[in-house]
């Protein structure tokens, strides 16, 4: 590099300049991953968007139909009905976050057998989703696990609902299985975040006479707000695309077919690829909108915390300015 | 300098990768095309005469070779299989042909994996033909002979026939119908098997009143079991072999009540009324397929809508194999009870096989002399072969066993197009449409007529759409 610069300083071409070489290196290193990303992510996605404007099956003739597939989504009861089911899973997601936060807070304080409980709560996340489906199928079977346990507590069998047959409860049954599965994962993420909080803050708070609730409210929650936001966004988008529980436990029948299950039926059983692609694009838009709304909401909720951050930044900036001024003054003095 | 090097290295890497990708892609596709086309030529000239001319036990008994065979029956690979295992069949075969080695490979997810293997080429010598369109049969499989000649010797080959040539011989054929427990029916005082829908519903009620058994187990939760009710649409519901694949495709209101106890309407009526009358299990949403076999075997279940293929499984699931019986769907059309025979998977032979003759001999032995059909509760494949015992009772009772005629040429894909367009998926493995009948009957949310009217509407608009497309183009 230096030799080249030394021999031909006058006619230094752009590619041999420092800037030019930086660009070459950047291109050389990124071209492969970018190429792969384009090929396996964005190209198929673009194709899918294209498919959503066609009436087509996997093989055979394709007919361009414009926005018909999108109109169909709104026209069909089974598709719009399946979107309503997401609300069940969203309620479940919120309950899940609260429970996870609760357990994380308790378990990050000094608890007997804390590690054991952490393990027990996290364990369901390690099980394969299909296996969980089968576990819960038997769990909810009439007269099996759940009914026996409740019966042992003195609830008569006649007062128990049919967990998967009764349309009033079957969606809640499915939501519970998904909460059971993912709560542990959320909790572990929360524990990780809570661990990273400076312990001197707790000591200071303890000296000031703060109780556990106050510690949670004024120390833990503000320090882990990013991870809480992230978990909520993930849970909400996850609930929009709930699939495994209804697919395995009820097959999406009996009023439990979520958007993904219906999409799977449309795409694979009925082979309406165009309509299924349109559904996928539509779901993507909904997820975008939901994420943006949440972002705005959290900005509003945490505006005070953000204000603190800003003031900290401002303080730092001030300090910097002061130092710079001092330096400048010293130079001037020389 | 260094920059150049980096660029060249980077470019070289990228190009090498893309070249490698192109290279392998094109070579493999070319390879399969070439081998496919050449093989069909050789297949039709030499192969067609080969298969028919082989006399099992006489032709080339000292032939040496290895036949690699792909099967969906992974259960038969196990030594504790409750029936004749592959090992036993092969031992029997080797008595006649001691030097032909049969190498069996079972695929658990056969429907999908076999297609992948087929397209990859080099899959072996004999396989059960997966779902390929009939126009592709000559590309992948050996021509076994003309339809005229083959059909003199074999039954149910129409599904694997293309342009008058046969490319596959079914391993067996089965019929849809009810697997039932004879003892339960006896206890309920049922002396003769029902032949119409009303009698059947009365019998279910009798089982409910007089025994502790569940009269009709829906197996709702398994999903595919609900689709089994569609299997009788066709010759059983109309008495017309041309109905399912030909006439139905141009008919409207196919789910309407013909008023004489026949038609698809009355098939679904059995299901709806049985659920409504409480003749099915208490909680349909948590039924379990595996345990249902044992329950039927030991008399906790009266009957299940499945097919004759299920009989051996039910017999093997408990201590009362003699109690398991099979009956045709109770529907009489013009004084006759029709039963439709459906071919199971068919044997297909790889035209590129290096052991073509050995493969031919194995298939011929399996279809002619193995007694597979009788062992597995199926119908005889050869004209003089032996069916499972319970078919004799059906024939004695006057049932007519017949195959649904295949679609007319040019309309092979029409049923699947209509299925896709209407989303009714008649005859597919997806039982969610029939599941609605059980749900609605259970909570009374919708009447059968409303459900079927909805299906009629969907079907009619699909028929309209597709006929308008075909006339326009």
Descriptive report:
- The complex is a heterodimer of chains A (334) and B (473).
- Chain A is mostly helical.
- In chain A, 76% of the residues lie in helices and 1% in strands.
- Chain A is built from 15 helices and two strands.
- Chain A has helices at 2-7, 18-51, 68-75, 77-108, 114-126, 129-140, 145-152, 170-195, 199-207, 212-223, 225-240, 244-250, 259-269, 273-301, 303-333, and strands at 54-55, 63-64.
- Chain A has a two-stranded antiparallel ribbon with strand order 1-2.
- In chain A, helix 3 crosses helix 14 (273-301), helix 5 packs across helix 8 (170-195) and helix 11 (225-240) packs antiparallel against helix 14.
- The longest helix of chain A is centred in the first third of the chain and has 34 residues, at 18-51.
- Chain A starts with a helix and ends with a helix.
- With 473 residues, chain B is α/β, with parallel strands linked by helices.
- Helix content of chain B is 46%, strand content 13%.
- Chain B has 19 helices and 15 strands.
- In chain B, strands 2-1-3-14-7 form a five-stranded mixed sheet, covered by helices on one side. A four-stranded mixed sheet of chain B has the order 10-11-9-12. A three-stranded antiparallel sheet of chain B has the order 4-6-5.
- In chain B, strand 5 and strand 6 (165-166) form a beta hairpin.
- The radius of gyration of chain B is 25 Å and the shape is globular.
- Chain B starts with a helix and ends with a helix.
- Residues 14-49 of chain B have low confidence and may be disordered.
- Classes of the chains: A mainly alpha (334), B alpha/beta (473).
């Amino acid at each position: 590099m230096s030799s080249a610069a030394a021999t031909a300083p006058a006619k230094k071409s752009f590619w041999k300049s420092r800037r030019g070489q930086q660009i070459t290196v950047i291109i050389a290193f990124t071209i492969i991953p970018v190429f792969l990303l384009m090929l396996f992510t964005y190209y198929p996605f673009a194709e899918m968007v294209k498919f959503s404007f066609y009436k087509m099956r996997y093989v055979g003739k394709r007919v361009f139909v414009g926005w018909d597939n999108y109109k169909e989504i709104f026209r069909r009861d089974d598709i719009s009905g399946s979107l309503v089911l997401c609300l069940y899973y969203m309620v479940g997601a919120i309950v899940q976050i609260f429970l996870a936060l609760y357990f994380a807070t308790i378990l990050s304080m000094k608890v007997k057998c804390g590690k054991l409980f952490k393990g027990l709560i996290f364990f369901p996340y390690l099980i394969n989703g299909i296996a969980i489906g089968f576990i819960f199928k038997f769990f909810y079977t009439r007269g099996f696990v759940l009914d026996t346990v409740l019966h042992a507590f003195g609830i008569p069998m006649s007062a128990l609902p049919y967990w998967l047959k009764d349309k009033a409860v079957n969606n809640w049954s499915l939501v519970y299985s998904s909460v059971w599965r993912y709560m542990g994962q959320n909790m572990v993420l929360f524990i990780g975040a809570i661990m990273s909080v400076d312990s001197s803050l707790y000591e200071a708070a303890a000296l000031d006479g703060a109780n556990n609730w106050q510690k949670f409210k004024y120390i833990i929650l503000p320090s882990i707000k990013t991870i809480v936001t992230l978990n909520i966004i993930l849970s909400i988008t996850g609930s929009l695309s709930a699939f495994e529980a209804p697919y395995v436990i009820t097959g999406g029948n009996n009023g439990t077919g979520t958007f993904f299950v219906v999409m799977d039926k449309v795409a694979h059983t009925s082979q309406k690829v165009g309509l299924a692609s349109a559904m996928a694009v539509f779901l993507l838009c909904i997820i975008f909108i939901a994420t943006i709304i949440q972002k705005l909401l959290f900005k509003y909720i945490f505006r005070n915390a953000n204000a603190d951050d800003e003031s900290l930044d401002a303080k730092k900036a001030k300090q910097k300015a002061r130092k710079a001024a001092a330096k400048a003054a010293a130079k001037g003095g020389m | 300098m260094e920059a150049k090097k980096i660029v060249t290295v980077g470019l070289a890497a990228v190009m090498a990768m893309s070249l490698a990708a192109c290279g392998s892609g094109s070579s493999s596709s070319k390879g399969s095309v070439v081998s496919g086309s050449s093989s069909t030529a050789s297949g039709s000239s030499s192969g067609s005469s080969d298969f028919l001319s082989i006399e099992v036990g006489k032709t080339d008994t000292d032939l040496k070779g290895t036949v690699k065979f792909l099967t969906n029956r992974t259960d038969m690979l196990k030594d504790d299989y409750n029936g004749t295992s592959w090992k036993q069949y092969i031992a029997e075969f080797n008595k006649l042909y001691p030097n032909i080695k049969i190498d069996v490979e079972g695929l658990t997810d056969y429907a999908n994996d076999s297609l992948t293997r087929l397209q990859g080429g080099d899959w072996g010598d004999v396989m059960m033909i997966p779902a390929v369109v009939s126009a592709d049969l000559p590309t992948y499989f050996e021509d076994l002979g003309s339809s005229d000649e083959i059909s003199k010797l074999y039954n149910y080959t129409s599904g694997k026939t293309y342009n008058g040539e046969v490319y596959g011989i079914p391993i067996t054929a089965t019929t849809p119908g009810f697997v039932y427990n004879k003892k339960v029916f006896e206890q309920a005082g049922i002396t003769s098997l029902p032949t119409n829908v009303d009698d059947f519903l009365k019998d279910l009620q009798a089982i409910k009143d007089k025994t502790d058994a569940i009269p009709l187990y829906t197996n709702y939760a398994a999903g595919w079991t609900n689709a089994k009710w569609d299997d009788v649409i066709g010759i059983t519901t109309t008495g017309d072999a041309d109905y399912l694949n030909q006439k139905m495709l141009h008919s409207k209101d196919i789910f309407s009540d013909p008023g004489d106890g026949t038609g698809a309407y009355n098939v679904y009526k059995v299901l709806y009324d049985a659920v409504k009358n409480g003749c099915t299990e208490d909680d349909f949403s948590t039924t379990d397929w595996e345990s249902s076999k044992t329950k039927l075997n030991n008399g906790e279940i009266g009957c299940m809508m499945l097919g004759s293929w299920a009989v051996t499984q039910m017999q093997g699931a408990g201590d009362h194999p003699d109690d398991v019986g099979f009956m045709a769907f109770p529907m009489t059309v013009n004084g006759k009870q029709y039963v439709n025979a459906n071919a199971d998977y068919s044997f297909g032979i790889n035209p590129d096989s290096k052991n073509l003759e050995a493969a031919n001999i194995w298939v011929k032995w399996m279809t002619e002399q193995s007694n597979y059909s009788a062992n597995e509760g199926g119908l005889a494949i050869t004209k003089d072969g032996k069916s499972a015992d319970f078919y004799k009772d059906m024939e004695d009772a006057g049932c007519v066993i017949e195959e649904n005629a295949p679609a007319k040429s040019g309309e092979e894909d029409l049923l699947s197009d209509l299925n896709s367009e209407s989303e009714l998926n008649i005859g597919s493995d997806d039982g969610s449409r029939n599941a609605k009948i059980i749900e609605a009957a259970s909570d009374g949310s919708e009447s059968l007529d409303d459900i079927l009217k909805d299906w009629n509407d969907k079907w009619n608009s699909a028929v309209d759409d597709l006929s308008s497309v075909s006339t326009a183009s």
